[in-house]
């Protein structure tokens, strides 16, 4: 599922993008209303997340322009303007839902899922890092469009690392979450499987994604 997030606050935009990307959504960010309108007209999106106080074109105006082109795409407004009058303006502009800032991230996810059900679109549960993709529905992994065949254990390890991309994961964590065993410091089975996985996802690519952090564990990240 592809989402357009129009939000001019860099930190908030980054937080939302990372959070919903980790849930399998593909997110593009526009930092002002004009950029948001341009991206909307060039691409196809399943949901629009829209701030109100935006440079160049405000969220209410942008929502009206979106509605003029597309009557069905779900629009969720995210804004600090939380009065009844503000909400009325949002709904009158064509929004499907309205979430006031500050909000709990879990509530945002719940509202996204509700809009998905309402629109009849099932989200594609795909995790991405650079050109590496893991589809949670089909249990498949590709890099640069090429399918990577993994064993059941390799896939479980790959999924856990992708769900925690950018974080250093210790061997203890992997043992407990992937093997569901008490950690045995005398075994090198985790190192062996990480080696298997690294050969499959990194061999032949100039950008390496699976890294060993000496004395700490492993991390899946770009560069």
pLDDT averaged over residues: 87
Could you state the CATH homologous superfamily of the largest domain? Response regulator
Helix content: 40-55%
Q: Architecture of the largest domain, according to CATH?
A: 3-Layer(aba) Sandwich
GO molecular function: phosphorelay response regulator activity; transcription cis-regulatory region binding
InterPro entries: CheY-like_superfamily, OmpR/PhoB-type_DNA-bd, Sig_transdc_resp-reg_receiver, WalR-like, WH-like_DNA-bd_sf
Keywords: DNA-binding, Phosphoprotein, Transcription, Transcription regulation, Two-component regulatory system
Modified residues (4-aspartylphosphate): 51
How would you describe what is shown here?
The modification 4-aspartylphosphate is found at residue 51. This is Two-component system copper resistance phosphate regulon response regulator CusR. This protein has 223 residues and is of the alpha/beta class. Helix content is 42%, strand content 21%. It has eight helices and eleven strands. The chain has helices at 10-21, 33-42, 59-69, 84-93, 105-119, 152-163, 171-179, 189-202, and strands spanning 2-6, 26-30, 47-51, 75-79, 97-100, 126-129, 132-135, 140-143, 146-148, 210-213, 217-220. Strands 2-1-3-4-5 form a five-stranded parallel sheet, sandwiched between helices. It has a four-stranded antiparallel sheet with strand order 6-7-8-9, with helices on one face. Helix 2 (33-42) packs parallel to helix 3 (59-69), helix 6 (152-163) crosses helix 7 (171-179) and helix 6 (152-163) packs across helix 8. The radius of gyration is 20 Å and the shape is elongated. The model has no long low-confidence stretch (mean pLDDT 87).
């Amino acid at each position: 599922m592809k989402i357009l997030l129009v939000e001019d606050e860099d930190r908030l935009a980054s937080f939302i993008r990372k959070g919903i990307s980790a849930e399998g959504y593909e997110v593009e960010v526009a930092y002002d209303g004009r950029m948001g309108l341009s991206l909307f007209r060039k691409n196809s999106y399943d949901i629009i997340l829209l701030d109100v106080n935006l440079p160049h074109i405000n969220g209410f105006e942008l929502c009206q322009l979106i509605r003029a082109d597309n009557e069905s795409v779900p629009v969720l407004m995210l804004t600090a303007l939380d009065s009844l009058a503000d909400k009325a303006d949002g709904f009158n502009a064509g929004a499907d839902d309205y979430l006031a800032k500050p909000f709990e991230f879990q509530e945002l996810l719940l509202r996204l899922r509700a809009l998905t059900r309402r629109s009849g679109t099932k989200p594609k549960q795909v995790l991405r890092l650079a050109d590496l993709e893991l589809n949670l529905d089909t249990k498949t992994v590709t890099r640069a469009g090429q399918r990577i065949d993994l064993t059941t254990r390799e896939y479980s390890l790959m999924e856990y690392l992708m769900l925690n991309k950018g974080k250093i994961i210790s061997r203890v964590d992997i043992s407990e979450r992937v093997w569901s065993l008490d950690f045995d410091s005398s075994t090198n089975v985790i190192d062996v499987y990480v080696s298997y996985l690294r050969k499959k996802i990194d061999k032949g690519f100039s950008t390496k994604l699976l890294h060993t952090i000496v004395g700490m564990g492993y991390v899946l990240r770009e560069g």
